[in-house]
């Protein structure tokens, strides 16, 4: 299945726009990555993807990855070290639960847009927006069709 089968082009634009809006509230960077399959542990795969996409390169180490393996109905939300040092354990649990409900209902774009907005609000408490903050990472949805869990 191709990315457009899961998130049509218009949905990808809505997600990118949601990221742009959320990042106006925070210096945090929000990224969405989708893949069809994840044979193993979704968190381990998400960490591998986080590193492969170089999301750890932000100035404040405050990037967030929303990782979705849509055919396997698995997802993880991962923050970089700057976020993990600032927020309590289990910080992403409610976002994971809410996005899971949207995915089960067949509404991935609505769910991703809502979760992105919520993440922006929550991150603004720890990493408030700054007038001259630069967008360090692309707001476009990234995709791969590999199910390599090495």
Q: Please provide the count of β strands.
A: 4
**Which topology does CATH recognise?**
Diaminopimelate Epimerase, Chain A, domain 1
* Strand ordering within the main sheet: 3-2-1-4
| Total discrete domains | 1
Shape: globular
Decide which structural class fits the backbone.
Answer: alpha/beta
Low-confidence stretches: none
Strand fraction equals: 5-15%
Gyration radius, rounded = 14 Å
What is the name of the CATH class?
A: Alpha Beta
Q: What composes the largest sheet?
A: 4 strands, mixed
**Assembly annotation:** single chain
Corresponding CATH architecture: Roll
Mean pLDDT: 93
SSE arrangement:
Elements (H helix, E strand, L loop, with lengths): L2 H4 L2 H15 L5 E7 L6 H11 L10 E7 L4 E6 L1 H6 L6 H12 L3 H17 L17 E2 L7
Parallel strand pairs: 1-2, 1-4
Antiparallel strand pairs: 2-3
What does this structure look like?
- This protein has helices spanning 3-6, 9-23, 42-52, 81-86, 93-104, 108-124, and strands at 29-35, 63-69, 74-79, 142-143.
- Strands 3-2-1-4 form a four-stranded mixed beta sheet, sandwiched between helices.
- The mean pLDDT is 93.
- The protein starts with a helix and ends in a 7-residue tail after the last strand.
- Helix 2 (9-23) runs parallel beside helix 6 and helix 5 (93-104) packs antiparallel against helix 6.
- The protein contains six helices and four strands.
- The chain is globular and about 40 Å long.
- The protein is an alpha/beta fold and 150 residues long.
- The chain has one domain (8-143): Diaminopimelate Epimerase, Chain A, domain 1.
């Amino acid at each position: 299945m191709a990315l457009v089968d899961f998130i049509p082009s218009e949905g990808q634009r809505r997600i990118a726009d949601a990221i742009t809006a959320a990042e106006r509230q925070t210096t945090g960077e929000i990224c969405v990555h989708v893949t069809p399959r994840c044979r193993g542990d979704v968190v381990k795969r998400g960490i591998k993807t986080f590193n492969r996409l170089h999301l750890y390169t932000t100035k404040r180490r405050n990037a967030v990855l929303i990782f979705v393996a849509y055919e396997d109905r698995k997802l993880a939300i991962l923050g970089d070290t700057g976020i993990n040092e600032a927020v309590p354990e289990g910080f992403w649990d409610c976002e994971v639960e809410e996005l899971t409900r949207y995915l089960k209902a067949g509404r991935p774009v609505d769910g991703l847009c809502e979760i992105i907005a919520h993440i922006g609000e929550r991150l603004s408490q720890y990493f408030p927006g700054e007038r001259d903050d630069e967008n360090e990472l692309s707001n476009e949805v990234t995709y791969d069709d590999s199910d390599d869990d090495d």
